[in-house]
Design goal:
- The chain is mainly alpha-helical and 135 residues long.
- It has a single domain, classed as Up-down Bundle (Four Helix Bundle (Hemerythrin (Met), subunit A)), CATH 1.20.120.
- The chain has six helices and no strands.
- It starts with a helix and ends in an 8-residue tail after the last helix.
Length: 135
C-alpha cells in the first residue's frame, strides 16, 4: 500500500515536470505555468519520500517545511537548500492567484526547471526508484 502511494506521488511529479518541459519548448511559453509545475513537482517528490518513510506531513505547498521533515529521516536532504529548491515556494504558488501580480521571466522559468530536475534526480536516488523515464 505504501509503495503504491509513493509510486503515485512520483508519477504525478513526473507529469508536472513533463508539463513544465513541454510548456518551455512551446512557441509561446507561459513562464508562470512552468514555475508552478516545477514547484508542484518538487513538492510531490518530497512527499513521495516522506510517504515511503511514513512521516506525517500536513497539507502544504511549503517546500522548506517538507525538506526539514525529510532531513529528519536523511540529513543529506540539506543539499536541497544548496540548489535552492526552497526558492520555488511561495512564488510558484503565488503565480496562480490573480490578486498577486508576478511576472516570471524565461530565465526564472529555466532556473525553476533546472532546480526541479536536480530535486528529481536526488529524491529518486534516495527512493531507489528505477524505471521512471524523464524527457
Amino acid at each position: 500500500m505504501i509503495e503504491e502511494l509513493v509510486r503515485r506521488w512520483v508519477e504525478r511529479a513526473e507529469k508536472d515536470l513533463k508539463i513544465a518541459r513541454r510548456e518551455l519548448k512551446s512557441d509561446e511559453p507561459i513562464y508562470e505555468e512552468v514555475l508552478f509545475h516545477c514547484q508542484q513537482a518538487v513538492e510531490k517528490y518530497l512527499k513521495a519520500f516522506l510517504t515511503k518513510h511514513q512521516v506525517f506531513f500536513k497539507k502544504t505547498h511549503d517546500i522548506s517545511y517538507l525538506i526539514a521533515l525529510c532531513m529528519r529521516v536523511d540529513k543529506e536532504f540539506k543539499h536541497l537548500y544548496s540548489i535552492e529548491a526552497d526558492k520555488l515556494y511561495p512564488r510558484g504558488i503565488d503565480v496562480r492567484y490573480p490578486e498577486i501580480e508576478l511576472e516570471v521571466t524565461e530565465e526564472e522559468a529555466r532556473e525553476a526547471l533546472e532546480i526541479a530536475e536536480k530535486v528529481r534526480d536526488f529524491v529518486l536516488k534516495k527512493l531507489g526508484t528505477i524505471g521512471i523515464s524523464g524527457e
